[in-house]
Every structure is written in C-alpha cells, then in structure tokens.
Amino acid sequence: MTRIAFLLVPGLHLLDLAGPAQVFSTAADHRHPYRLSYIADQPDPAPGAPGQDGVVTAQGLPLRADTAWPDLTPDDIVLVPGWRWATRRPHALPVSPAAARRLARHHAAGGTVASVCAGAFALGQAGLLDGHRCTTHHELQDTLARRHRRATVVRDVLYVTDDRVVTSAGIASGIDLALHLLAVRHGPGAAARAARSMVVYARRNGDEPQASAMLRHRAHVSDAVHRAQDLIDTGYTRPLPLGDLAAAAGVSERTLTRRFTAATGLTPLRYQQELRLERAQHLIGQGATLEAAARSVGFTDARMLRRLRSRPQPPH
C-alpha cells in the first residue's frame, strides 16, 4: 500500500490539493494500492495562538486534517500543494521547521517528495532543491530562483522530476504531475484510465524531457491518432498489429501511419517502443535486471531493450 501524504498549509489552493488527490483516489478505485493522508501544518502562527487541527483554503473552505504524521516508507509520496502567495508575509516560512525536517528525512530515506505551485518553496526550505532542477508557477519562478540559488529553476514547463524531487507549475498542473507519477509507477495505461475516469483532457505537453511519454505525445488534435494511442497505452506490453490499430482508429494502415507520424513525430511502433523503454528504465531504476525489465514490458529478451537504450531519443 503506497501512502500519498498531503501537507496542508493555510491559504492552500483547493485545486492544488484536489487535482492530485482525485488522481490517486481514482487510481485506488482502479485497484492500485494507494491510501491518502492529510496533515495540517501551521508554519507561521500568530503569537500565543493555540494549536489547530485544520487549515482554511485560499477559497475560504476550512479543512480538517491530522496533525500527527503517519509512518512513511520509501515507497510513499509526500506532496505539498501550493498556496495563495499574496496572503503570506514576505519572509514567512513556507512550512513549519518540523515539517521541513520531515520532508528532508523522507527524501533521505529514499522517498519521493512533490509540490504544486508555491509548494516548491517548502521543498526549498527543506534543502531539497539544492543541486536539483525544479519549477513552479510562472509568476513565482524569479522569486524561487532568488531564494534558492543552488537550484536550477526550469521555466514555463508543467513539471520537472529530478532524483525523487518532483515539482510542478501552478494549480491544474498538479493533475499532470500526478498522472505522470501514476504512469511511472504503473505504466501509461493506468494513467490513461485515471484520466478518462476524471474526464481529463490528458493531452497537455509538459515540454519536459522527463515527462511521461503518454502525456508528451498527446499535444495534438487528431482523434484517429488518439484512438490508436489509447489502444497502445493500455496494451503496449503485447504485440499490436498495425491493422488492429488502424481498425480501432477507423482509418487505413497507411493513413494511420501518416497521421500518427505527423501528430507525434513517431510511427505507432516507435511510440509503443518508447512506452516500453520508459517503463523498463523505471523498473531498472528500482533494481530490476535488464533481462527482467525487458520481459516485463513485452520483449522476448534484453537485446531489443539494449538497442533502444543506446540509440538517440527523439526530441521532446
């Protein structure tokens, strides 16, 4: 069971929280083992104020949450939603010192930390942006770069991943981040199913080389190609004859190849191989052997995987 622990601070944006929470909740409905937890943090209380067990969002909705942190394992994710920047005092700490230490400790133990929008400043407070690539809302990028000079702020992208530090831009980009994490852990088909259940227009291009292939190649408006991609996304580990893809798309094999290449820059086969490669790379990063990873994603042995890993990757 993977726990997604949301660290909630006063003034947080509802969609920063609700978007990723809905993605992982939907994944749990689809029998992926996720449990969601919510932790209230009070980083900058008024002098003499009593302890609280909730926060008020930027949209005025009060939220109740636990104040005690759950036990976390390296498989778990701690995610910090962003907040309304203008409501904070200029030099206020993003999160409490205790919460910052928790973030740092979780990452040091091998866990993943993530943020949406201004939540990146909490990761910075914990020292987790030093030496890493990161991003945030476009209106806060200059401030993040000034405050954390040892970080590399990647501008105007949806999300960035770097050594289990995952940061995203503002508000709705938290959905893209969560779908990416889902695709990395369970394959692009799982992310596609969650997106469809949420009625999400899951075709946003992150403009980020580490973005999931499923989202990276969905920045087009060809319905026929999207239908073929849906089939590949959910069945990329098995053989997918071009004729079957063309039939699902409602076009001829020649037309599908032409449209697919024009829309994504890849042939259907190359797209399937990219999904296999991305998943295999993740499995290898988690300790799987090359041979085991190759077989897990549908190759009969590791030779093709070796060739794919050695050849230049297409531009993103």
First and last CA, distance: 33 Å
- Could you tell me the CATH topology label of the largest domain: Rossmann fold
Q: Report the structural category.
A: alpha/beta
Which strand order do you get reading across the main beta sheet? 2-1-5-6-10-9
Number of domains: 2
Quaternary structure classification: single chain
> What is the fourth-level CATH superfamily of the largest domain?
Class I glutamine amidotransferase (GATase) domain
Q: Which CATH architecture of the largest domain? A: 3-Layer(aba) Sandwich
**What's the number of extended β-strand segments?**
10
Pfam family, one: DJ-1_PfpI
Domain HTH araC/xylS-type: 226-307
InterPro entries: Class_I_gatase-like, DJ-1/PfpI, Homeodomain-like_sf, HTH_AraC, INH-QAR
Protein name: GlxA family transcriptional regulator
Describe the structure.
The chain has two domains: 2-184, Rossmann fold (3-Layer(aba) Sandwich); 220-310, Arc Repressor Mutant, subunit A (Orthogonal Bundle), CATH 1.10.10.60. It is built from 13 helices and ten strands. The chain has helices spanning 14-29, 97-108, 120-125, 141-147, 173-186, 188-197, 213-216, 223-235, 242-249, 253-264, 268-285, 290-296, 302-310, and strands at 2-8, 34-40, 54-56, 62-64, 77-80, 112-116, 133-134, 152-153, 159-162, 165-168. A six-stranded mixed β-sheet has the order 2-1-5-6-10-9, with helices on both faces. It has a two-stranded antiparallel ribbon with strand order 3-4. A hairpin with a 5-residue loop joins strand 3 (54-56) and strand 4. Helix 5 (173-186) packs across helix 6 (188-197), helix 11 (268-285) packs across helix 12 (290-296) and helix 12 (290-296) crosses helix 13 (302-310). The radius of gyration is 21 Å and the shape is elongated. The protein starts with a strand and ends in a 6-residue tail after the last helix. Mean pLDDT is 88; it is low at 46-52 and 205-211. This is GlxA family transcriptional regulator. InterPro entries: Class_I_gatase-like (IPR029062), DJ-1/PfpI (IPR002818), Homeodomain-like_sf (IPR009057), HTH_AraC (IPR018060), INH-QAR (IPR052158).
